[in-house]
């Protein structure tokens, strides 16, 4: 069984600052991903309050964590920060997990 371990979460302020300063960006219609090569993969999800109500923001975070957990091999030892765009918030409420998966792997294909 694969799990999403605490050491795989990006939490420290200095890590976020380093990622923003040195990281590369991949942009799609629905996501901005800031990423950087690293020896240990870590992820974070940043969702603004304007995205929607708490249950919608939390569902988005659960979806991203689940896709990370089940597809760790496609993350290529990167530190990543996922930032959903406003255009996703309008569609996300009625979106199924499978539809979200397609959008997610679209942005993942743009990451080197």
UniProtKB/TrEMBL annotation:
Q: What is its EC number?
A: 3.1.26.5
Swiss-Prot/TrEMBL catalytic activity: Endonucleolytic cleavage of RNA, removing 5'-extranucleotides from tRNA precursor
**Annotated Pfam families:** Ribonuclease_P (PF00825)
What is one GO cellular-component annotation here? ribonuclease P complex
Q: Return the InterPro entries for the record.
A: Ribosomal_Su5_D2-typ_SF, Ribsml_uS5_D2-typ_fold_subgr, RNase_P, RNase_P_CS
Record function comment: RNaseP catalyzes the removal of the 5'-leader sequence from pre-tRNA to produce the mature 5'-terminus. It can also cleave other RNA substrates such as 4.5S RNA. The protein component plays an auxiliary but essential role in vivo by binding to the 5'-leader sequence and broadening the substrate specificity of the ribozyme.
The text of the family note is:
Belongs to the RnpA family.
Q: What is this protein called?
A: Ribonuclease P protein component
Q: Which organism is it from?
A: Tepiditoga spiralis
């Amino acid at each position: 069984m694969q799990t999403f371990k605490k050491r795989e979460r990006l939490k420290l302020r200095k890590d976020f600052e380093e990622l923003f300063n040195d990281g590369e960006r991949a942009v799609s219609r629905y996501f901005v991903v800031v990423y950087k090569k690293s020896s240990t993969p870590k992820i974070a999800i940043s969702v603004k309050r304007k995205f929607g109500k708490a249950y919608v923001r939390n569902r988005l975070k659960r979806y991203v964590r689940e896709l990370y957990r089940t597809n760790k091999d496609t993350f290529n030892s990167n530190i990543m920060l996922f930032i959903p765009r406003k255009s996703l918030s309008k569609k996300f409420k009625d979106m199924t997990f499978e539809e979200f998966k397609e959008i997610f792997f679209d942005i993942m294909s743009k990451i080197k």
